[in-house]
Amino acid sequence: MQKLFVLIAGCCLVGVAAFGQANDGIRTYPSNWWVGMKHSTIQVIVRGEGVGKAKGVRVNYPGVTVADWRPAHNSHYLFLHLRIGAAARPGTVHIIMDGAGTVDFPLAARRSGNGTAYAQGITSADFIYLLMPDRWSNGDPSNDRVPGLRDQSLNRDSIFLRHGGDFQGILNHLDYLQQLGVTALWMTPVLENDMPDRTEHGYAFTDHYTIEPRLGGAEGYRRLSDALHARGMKLIQDAVYNHVGLYHWLVQDPPDTNWLHNWPTYTQTNYRSETVMDPYASAADHKLLVDGWFTQQMPDLNQDNPDLAAFLIQHAIWCVESFGVDGWRIDTYPYNSLPFMNRCNAALLEEYPKLTMFGECWSPDVAQQAYFARNSFDAAFKSNLPGVLDFQCLFNGIAAAVGDSSAQGGGVNRLTQTLGSDFLYQNPAANVIFLDNHDMTRWFSRMHEEVAAQKMGIEWLLTARGIPQLYYGTEVLMAGVDNPDGWVRLDFPGGWPGDKKNAFTGEALTEDEKSIQDVVKKLGQYRLHSSALHSGRMMQYVPKGSLYVYFRYDARQTVLCAMNTGNLPVKVDFSRFSERTKGFSQGVDVLTDQRYPLAQTAALPGRTMWVLELQ
Predict the structure, then answer these.
(1) Pick from 65, 93, 108: which residue ends a domain?
(2) 176, 504 Cβ separation under 8 angstroms
(3) Is 102 among the domain residues?
(4) Using 50, 70 and 90 to split pLDDT, how confident is the model at 25?
(5) β-strands 184-187, 128-131 pairing
(6) Which segments constitute the Glycosyl hydrolase family 13 catalytic domain (predicted)?
């Protein structure tokens, strides 16, 4: 067998392990399938010692036939296509490989409730909570270390080692999420991550078809999904198509030499997503973006390989059907082959029409960000991705606005101008807006640990257009800068026995921490039943100095949002907004119940935001 040589560290090339270390028996990918799927002819990869030497492949199962088969370049693999007819029933298909053994391939009955009980999609009516399972709560200490895995670390005193959080810890605190008004849970990747170190974040996973056992495995993931759905909540899975971990079996024992983007020496991506649409970009720069490795520990997948493309697409469908996923967050979207992404998105939507997806598109301006989503401009490539993580609304929007406390209010103008570019999107409400995440400086630190800025950011987040996403701990003023990134991934207080501070119960929280948590709870609960914030239109007024006013409204409800980012009070003349206030006599503060007569001018204190429901 030809060994694949990859760069492990520095400038030394090391031959990686041969088959047998990763897996002792015969496995199939996917591990199973279902009857009654639209995706009814599937690629099955059989992996095992010598399976590629089979003289023939056959099945003897009513309604199932072998459409074709072939060995791979690597004798550890055999590829076949199974055609699952409409007459096929649940059971076990025996794939007989003449001269190479037999492997069982289960066919199951489909989940019920496609689009209603699962694969429901994530919309602007939802409120997403993003957490890292290893850092949120440890509900089952028995899985903190799993024998046989390379990383046996467990040390909460280190920001880069495992801390023990798991699915059970999340299950134990679903009441808390609902108190915040959260309707959808997004976790960083939950697939097996059998790397030697830095396994806490999950993005360098090593087996697509195994759920990380230190989180609770497939059984724990299903229990969490079922518990969310029983509460009327939704599950978002973090999908990574661009790369895998260095110890993934696809890297250690590839079926062929073209499953990865291989370079003579380690070659990193240039992280320049603009080379995708730049009409003047060199082919070399574009190739470096999409084919370069994300890090030395994350080899880059070649999605233009049709066998790999089928593997990735089927895995996406398998996850939705297996675990009842409702939404799909796609990592490092611009680094993927975009034609492949369109095919993958289309395959998911064909099977699950209500499923929604949003991609991580960390681009330098709105137009380039919109290029990766369904957009309204004419370009050679047209994306079918419903929405993106709206980095522009963060950096050139709310961060610019709240970060500028001058009376002139230049920052709020940048926010309105950024939102004014929404005409580039087919549906800007499908974009996910946020203040921070696991890869960037936390909002509280970005705002120099100013409580008023934290409050304004959250009020904007829960009232602006789009789908709001809150990063764990933002509601209790967790701080941290992104260099090193571990400081933005600290433990959620109260998630471990013996924690002196407990955000779940409020024990030992400071008054400031409690006040911000209360803001999230009150506004999150209000948002649950607010038609204007769920799906209403938005109207914004050109800022005057540091005063920025916008409305969310529909036929049933109107909400006035007024933000004063300056240090000094400003007068709010409600008559300026008569286009939206006509027919109303007062605004009631959603957080304080204070009433403001619209016939009068009111003073909005500095570094303060109002959220007023008009009556």
Answers:
(1) 108
(2) yes
(3) yes
(4) confident
(5) parallel
(6) 130-527
Output b/e per residue, 40-78; b: 16+ Cβ within 10 A.
Answer: bebbbbbbbbebbebeebebebeebebeebebbebbbbb
Report the C-alpha gap between 105 and 318 in whole angstroms.
Answer: 14
The answer to whether the pTM exceeds 0.90 is yes
Q: What is the DSSP string of 36-74?
A: T-S--EEEEEEESTTGGG-SEEE--BTTEEEEEEEE-SS
**Chain centroid to CA 106:** 30
Tell me: pLDDT of 9 over 60.
no
> What are the residues facing 439 on neighbouring strands?
none
Q: How many CB atoms lie within 10 A of CB 346?
A: 12
Q: Over the stretch 490-526, which tens digit does the pLDDT of each residue have?
A: 999 999 999 999 999 999 999 999 999 999 999 999 9
CA 243 to chain CA centroid, nearest Å: 15
Identify the pLDDT of residue 52.
96
Per residue, what are the HEC states of 186-247?
EECCCEECCCCCCCCCCCCCCEEEEECCCCCHHHHHHHHHHHHHHCCCEEEEEECCCECCCC
Angle value at C-alpha 156, between 154 and 159, nearest 5 degrees:
100
* β-pair partners for 102: 96
CB-facing half-sphere around the CA of 134: CA atoms within 13 A: 31
Residues that are catalytic: 331, 360
Q: Are strands 547-553 and 558-564 parallel, antiparallel or unpaired?
A: antiparallel
Q: Does residue 44 belong to any structural domain of this protein?
A: yes
CATH code: domain of residue 574: 2.60.40.1180
Structure tokens, 248: 């993934």
Q: What does the alpha-carbon distance between residue 384 and residue 372 come to, in Å, rounded to a whole number?
A: 8
Domain that holds residue 574: 537-614
Position 92: which residue type? T
For 469-527, the DSSP string reads: EEETTGGGT----SSSGGGGSPPPTTSSTT-S-BTTTTBT--HHHHHHHHHHHHHHHHH
Contact of 222 with 272, CB cutoff 8 Å: no
Residue 36 belongs to a domain with what CATH number?
2.60.40.10
Residue 377 domain-assigned?
no
How many domains is the chain built from?
A: 2
> How far apart, in Å, are the Cα atoms of 271 and each of 78, 259, 333, 362, 552?
35, 21, 11, 9, 36
CA distance 435 to 477: 12
DSSP reduced 3-state for 451: helix
Task: Residue 145: count other Cβ atoms within 10 Å of its Cβ.
Answer: 14
Q: Which of 108, 142, 158 is the last residue of a domain?
A: 108
Structural domain contains residue 318: no
313 beta partners? none
> Distance between CA 410 and CA 323 in Å, rounded?
47
